[in-house]
Amino acid sequence: MKNRFAGTGGLRNLMVAVLIAVVSFSVSNSVAQTEDDCFDSLQCESSWIGMSDGERDAVFAFAEDYKAFIHLARTELTFVAEAVAFAEENGFERLSASTNIVPGKKIYEVNRDRTISLLVIGEDSLQEGFHIIGSHIDSPRLDLKGRPLYENSEFALFQTNYHGGIKYHQWTNLPLALLGRIDKKDGSTISISVGLDDGDPIFMIPELSPHVDRSRNSKTLADFLGPEDLDPIIAHIPDAAGGDVVDQVLAFLAREYGVTRADLVSAELALVPAGRPRDMGFDRGLIAAYGQDDRLASYTAMRAIADVSRPQKTTMAFLVDNEEVGNRNNTGAHSDYFADLLSRLLYAQLQDEYREPLFRSALRQTKFISIDVNPGINPINPGVWESGNAPKLGYGVNLKLYGQGNTANSEFIAWTRQLLDNNEVPWQTVTYKVGVGGGGTIGGEFSAQNIEVIDFGVPVLSIHTPYAVSSKVDVYSLYQAARAFYSYTE
Question: Which of 244, 273, 302 is the last residue of a domain?
Answer without folding.
Answer: 273
